[in-house]
Design brief:
Length: 155
């Protein structure tokens, strides 16, 4: 059989394959079968409106999709945020934000770490305070979010 090649994207899920035509068709069938489930757990890039009716995919949306594609443990490891408590808090907050949670509470960070089998923070409220004082996290009433400065410090 001849070699075949295929590349396609559904939302933020990409598939690229090369090989025997029958094998590739089989792999493609598997991906298509699971596509609906994969799209539910993987956010698609956000399209924003700029100016008078023009649209563009914002670079931040692409960064968020890349962050959200990671598991929390792999993201923490990649950002060297497994030991330094304030950095771990910030990275977890950024990861949740990239997955669509716009505003968080301290318990959301604690739950995300626990749910991903990561070591807990000694004092999550204290780590929040450190990140706020550094300008990495901003408060919004009783909730908070990662600032551009905080995002830049990790990326």
């Amino acid at each position: 059989m001849a070699n075949a090649k295929i590349d396609f994207t559904i939302g933020s899920i990409s598939f690229s394959g090369e090989g025997e035509e029958s094998w590739l068709a089989n792999q493609l069938d598997k991906i298509i079968e699971k596509a609906a489930d994969l799209i539910k757990i993987t956010p698609s890039p956000q399209v924003i409106t700029e100016g008078a009716g023009t649209t563009a995919t914002h670079a931040a949306a692409k960064e968020d999709a890349a962050i959200a594609a990671h598991t929390l443990p792999s993201f923490l490891k990649e950002k060297n945020a497994t030991k330094i408590q304030a950095r771990k808090f910030l990275a977890t907050t950024l990861w949740l934000q990239a997955r669509g949670q716009e505003r968080m509470m301290t318990r959301d960070i604690v739950r995300a770490l626990k749910g991903s089998s990561q070591s807990r923070l000694a004092n999550a409220s204290s780590e929040l305070g450190k990140n706020v004082s550094n300008g990495f996290i901003a408060r919004d009433g009783d909730r908070f979010f990662v600032t551009d400065q905080g995002k830049a410090s990790l990326l």
